[in-house]
């Protein structure tokens, strides 16, 4: 499902003296079935942006087009269920939203809310718990008896259980250990390869380089760059202005440039960097 922002401005508490601008005239297309990363400094407007996609927030002006649905300031809060089913949202620290007395009930909540029968929802819970790398035996436990990483996976399973076409992830790996992070990121890439559109908010530029097809950079509520990560991370203006940090491989490549290595474009993943170094050492 393609998602388009057309001149979207969002002002928090628009009519109050303390109004603040969350988004400022953003026009952006998020392509169907791709993995798009949204990056930007703290407070730049990333969460505000993605919350427009399932109409948790509405534009103060402009419009957001999600598939066939158009969201404007006039959009009625009724009839948003089909949109919320199409667009699943994993919030920051989603485990804080678990509330049922068993893991199974927690995962079943979403699908049943969207009209699935108990049997369908239970089946989804059994499929999803395995998909997120947990044992089915956990379904009968209280979510509050699980580790933080397990709770995070249960919360993600709960969103995936409704089979959304688009999955929005707001820093889904924050606070996870490196192995947990890798597993969760690979799960999202796998979901994309199976046909879902993935939108990831992250501060981790290595994840952007390793997983994203496209990235969008938000700064002070404005979209300041969009494109494939290799292009954006090689945008000299952004780097000079210090609005973007580089993936580790690109930073290291910059250091190597001082030692005589030459890169037409900074490599952004460890594989690209390794290949370039080997070629140059071999004089290719
Ligand atoms: N509910 C709110 N009421 C008023 N202002 C808000 C509200 N939520 C966010 N803002 C403001 O809007 C701006 C953008 O916030 P937003 O949460 O979208 O940023 P972010 O890029 O997601 O930040 P972070 O990386 O810290 O999560 C900030 O200036 C923030 O203070």
Automatic annotation (TrEMBL):
Gene Ontology molecular function, alphabetical: ATP binding; ATP hydrolysis activity; ATPase-coupled transmembrane transporter activity
Recorded topology in the membrane: Peripheral membrane protein
Cell compartment(s), UniProt: Cell membrane
GO cellular component: ATP-binding cassette (ABC) transporter complex
Cited Gene3D superfamilies: P-loop containing nucleotide triphosphate hydrolases (3.40.50.300)
Stored Pfam families: ABC_tran
Source taxon at top rank: Bacteria
Listed InterPro entries: AAA+_ATPase, ABC_transporter-like_ATP-bd, ABC_transporter-like_CS, ABC_transpr_CbiO/EcfA_su, ECF_ABC_transporter_ATP-bd, EcfA2, P-loop_NTPase
Keywords: ATP-binding, Cell membrane, Membrane, Nucleotide-binding, Translocase, Transport
Known function: ATP-binding (A) component of a common energy-coupling factor (ECF) ABC-transporter complex.
The protein's assembly and partners: Forms a stable energy-coupling factor (ECF) transporter complex composed of 2 membrane-embedded substrate-binding proteins (S component), 2 ATP-binding proteins (A component) and 2 transmembrane proteins (T component).
Entry protein name: Energy-coupling factor transporter ATP-binding protein EcfA2
Biological source species: Companilactobacillus mindensis DSM 14500
């Amino acid at each position: 499902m393609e998602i388009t922002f057309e001149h979207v401005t969002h002002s928090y508490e628009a009519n109050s003296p303390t109004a603040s601008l969350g988004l400022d005239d953003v026009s952006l297309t998020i392509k169907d079935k791709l993995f798009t990363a949204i990056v930007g400094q703290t407070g730049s407007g990333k969460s505000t942006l993605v919350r427009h996609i399932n109409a948790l927030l509405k534009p103060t002006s402009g419009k957001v087009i999600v598939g066939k649905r158009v969201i404007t300031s006039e959009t009625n809060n009724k009839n948003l269920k089909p949109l919320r089913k199409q667009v699943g949202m994993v919030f920051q620290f989603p485990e804080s939203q678990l509330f049922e007395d068993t893991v199974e009930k927690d995962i079943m909540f979403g699908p049943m809310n969207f009209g699935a029968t108990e049997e369908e929802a239970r089946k989804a819970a059994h499929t999803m718990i395995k998909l997120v790398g947990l044992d089915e035996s956990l379904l009968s436990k209280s979510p509050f008896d699980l580790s933080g990483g397990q709770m995070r996976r249960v919360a993600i399973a709960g969103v995936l259980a409704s089979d959304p076409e688009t999955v929005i992830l707001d820093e889904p790996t924050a606070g996870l250990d490196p192995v947990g992070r890798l597993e969760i990121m690979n799960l999202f890439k796998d979901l994309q390869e199976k046909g879902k559109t993935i939108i990831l908010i992250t501060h981790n530029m290595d994840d952007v380089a390793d997983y994203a097809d496209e990235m969008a950079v938000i700064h002070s509520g404005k979209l300041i760059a969009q494109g494939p990560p290799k292009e954006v991370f090689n945008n000299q203006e952004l780097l000079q202005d210090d609005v973007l940090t580089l993936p580790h491989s690109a930073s290291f490549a910059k250091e190597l440039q001082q030692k005589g290595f030459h890169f037409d474009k900074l490599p952004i993943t460890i594989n690209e960097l390794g290949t370039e170094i080997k070629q140059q050492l071999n004089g290719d």
